[in-house]
Amino acid sequence: MPPATQPEPDAVMQCYYGRMSLKKKIVLSFLLSAFIIALLSAFLYLNFVEIKKETVFLELADTIRSRSLQLRRHEKNFLLYVSNQQTEVRAIHETLAELEKIVEGIPADRTAPVAELRAQIAVYREHFGDIAALLDEALRESGALKLDAAYARVSGLVEANFLDQPLESVRYLRESLGLQGDRRFIAVLRELEARIAALRKSGEIILGATEAIDKDARTRVERSIAVSRTAILVVFPLFIVVGFGTLLFITGSVVQRLRLLTGVVERAGTGHFAALPVAAGAGRSDEVETLIRTFNTMEEQLLAREKELLQSKKLAAIGTLAAGVAHELNNPLSNIYTTAQRLLKKSGDSGPDYLKRGLSDIFGETMRVKTIVSDLLGFARGREPNPRFVELRGLVGGAWGQLERARDISGVRLQLTLVPEEIVICVDPEQLEQVFLNLFANACDAMGGAGELSVRADEEDTAVRIRVSDTGAGMSRETVDKIFEPFFTTKDKGTGLGLAIVFNIIQKHGGSMQAESTEGAGTTFVITLPKGTSPAEHPAAARTTVKE
Predict the structure, then answer these.
(1) Domain end marker among 361, 381, 401
(2) Cβ(514)–Cβ(508) under 8 Å?
(3) 38, 163, 280, 509: which could form a disulfide with 79 (CB 3.0–4.6 Å)?
């Protein structure tokens, strides 16, 4: 198989973009954009309410200014035109009442110019009342003075100037009629002049206050409009940036990772298998990350299946070769063995020692070769399992007992752990006992006859996982990769067929077998066997049915 190629570093980093699911990302992006729009809408609505309120107040300020100008016109007519004074008096009182009513309805937050306007309206009303009282008193004094024939002739002209130019009337009365300055008439006219000046000044202040109110209202309206304009100019581009940014981030992350996955899939089609890196933290990745994880799992399974297929083909080829070689060697070995036995018997005790030693060596090596040939035949034939239900604890104990009877393993302590305490599996007991015997013997050899051998079995939903661990010297990674290959051995006199036969037995049971080892820390063989609900449903039984 061609060597696995590694993804490009920059492409690898793209696999770590986005930890949430696509659905969550889309929902989050929508909620974020909707939140920005809702925030802008709420702000604009509140600002619209504020603008509306300011517009209403602006209309109110315009009404106040209009009424103030109307008050000044009535004031002017009142002071200039004697014939229409009563009408203007009523108009002034009505206008003042309207102004007071309008000012009372102004919100409390408009304190500065409104408070001044309210105070000046009261002052204006007071001045106007004083002018009206002084005017009545001046008319009474003028009436009393009409007994003087000279004054009676000019009284109409003098009375017409009471409100327009009262000091001119005073000058005329003193110079033409010789009235003294201490006369009440003169004092009333002078007081009237002062009150009229104060009234006019108060009217100007009222106009100034209405201008300030109008200006404040217009400023507030313009400020609210400017705030709305600024909010739109700021928030709307922010919405565009966030919306398009999240869209580009999501699509970019997804497209880049899918493109990377497509490239790896295409390379996998040509036999170049490469695992894609995935984001750390299960459950935090999106659908694309899940697809990548699934693809990695699929690649691992493909690699495992390819390795198993290669191993099966290798075992089948070697088995065919071994069967032929064993058949051809068996007869010559039997003849050599029989001839050596006869020569050894005929030589008896009188034969030379060197002849006896030579015949003993021939006999011993022939037996060793016959054992190898027997193993070859066993490996080549490899009968199909005959599965039946067996209690695992008894099976392991039986294999250990056989090993104890065959060799000295007193320095090795067996620790057996089953979860649950009783596990029943559907296997061929003779073949599985052979598996345990081989593994136990190898473990004892690896530990030099002293150490701890632990067997742990865990019952899962559909399988039983068995771990056989020793405390021996362990193996290198290169050795672990080759230990299931036929004729590979690390022992001086080993055939290299034991673990190959074990591996073949486990495969025929529909299981799997892996080795885990660290140099100086021991070795663990992990066997996974299907539980099976009945012998008829066992994978071995199915294969037997197919062959028949």
Answers:
(1) 381
(2) no
(3) 163
